[in-house]
């Protein structure tokens, strides 16, 4: 195959991938998958996230400059360079990302490629590369940890996540520890609990692991430290519960 023919074939493949991505952003991929509650669902039935009132795309995806927080880390924007996601190019990409859970593997790859190519073309390898890395990280987070963005959850997932957050908050409020209040209950609650390690702040997860081993013993910790851990855990899950509740109210779902 000549170089020109190969280029033409590659271009046609890219155009086809782009067209399929646009279709799936609109209609979703009709593919049966398992949701967080371990029930089979049609991927196209996952909601296209709607922004809560007063929340911008930048805020929804947590891309506020100058500090950007994701996947348990914080990154400063490049020194002396203000990153602004308010332009039409990045706004369109972030809008498309709201349907990320509806995409199959091929269209997800096409979306990541679109993010990179459009931002690099608009801003160059420096600023554009940084912005692309941030958006691609958010796509990854939305796929692997959709509970971080309640608007991305199906109704069943949202209901289950709300219930387990309530159990966790009550557990900490009674002086329980980490997963104590989430190990029982119906199968759906247990399944979601197993997937909710993401919802623990990294510091709290590490303390929980340490206290469940012989690394440290509770008696070796001051009562003030233990009280702070319990209080922080309660506040964390109470905040999660409220976030889920607000999304349920937005969808006109009954609050249990």
Describe what this molecule looks like in 3D.
- This protein is mainly alpha-helical and 256 residues long.
- The protein has two domains: 130 residues, no CATH class; 97 residues, no CATH class.
- The protein contains nine helices and four strands.
- The strands form two sheets. Strands 1-2 form a two-stranded antiparallel ribbon. A two-stranded antiparallel ribbon has the order 3-4.
- Helix 3 packs antiparallel against helix 4 and helix 4 packs antiparallel against helix 5.
- The radius of gyration is 21 Å and the shape is globular.
- It starts with a helix and ends in a 6-residue tail after the last helix.
- About 11% of the residues have low confidence.
How is the topology of this model organized?
Elements: H1 3-27, E1 32-34, E2 40-42, H2 57-60, E3 67-70, E4 73-76, H3 88-97, H4 105-123, H5 127-144, H6 155-173, H7 187-195, H8 202-211, H9 223-250
Antiparallel strand pairs: 1-2, 3-4
Helix pairs in contact: 1-4, 3-4, 4-5, 6-7, 6-9
């Amino acid at each position: 195959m000549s170089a020109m023919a190969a280029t033409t074939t590659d271009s046609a493949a890219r155009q086809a991938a782009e067209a399929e991505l646009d279709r799936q952003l609109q209609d979703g991929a009709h593919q049966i998958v398992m949701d967080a509650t371990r029930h089979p669902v049609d991927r196209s039935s996952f909601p296209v996230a709607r922004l809560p009132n007063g929340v911008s795309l930048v805020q929804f995806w947590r891309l506020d400059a100058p500090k950007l927080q994701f996947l348990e880390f914080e990154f400063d924007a490049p020194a002396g360079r203000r990153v602004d996601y308010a332009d039409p190019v990045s706004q369109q990409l972030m809008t498309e990302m709201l349907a990320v859970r509806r995409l199959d593997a091929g269209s997800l790859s096409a979306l990541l490629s679109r993010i990179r190519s459009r931002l690099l073309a608009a801003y160059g390898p420096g600023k554009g590369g940084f912005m692309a890395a941030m958006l691609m990280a958010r796509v990854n987070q939305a796929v692997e940890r959709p509970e971080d963005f309640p608007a991305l959850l199906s109704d069943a997932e949202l209901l289950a996540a709300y219930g387990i957050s309530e159990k966790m908050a009550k557990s900490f409020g009674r002086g329980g520890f980490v997963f104590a209040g989430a190990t029982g209950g119906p199968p759906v609650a247990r399944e979601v609990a197993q997937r909710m390690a993401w919802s623990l702040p990294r510091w709290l997860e590490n303390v929980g692991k340490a206290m469940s081993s012989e690394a440290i013993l509770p008696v070796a910790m001051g009562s003030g430290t233990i009280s702070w851990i319990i209080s922080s855990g309660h506040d964390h899950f109470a905040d999660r519960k409220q976030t889920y509740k607000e999304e349920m109210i937005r969808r006109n779902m009954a609050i249990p």
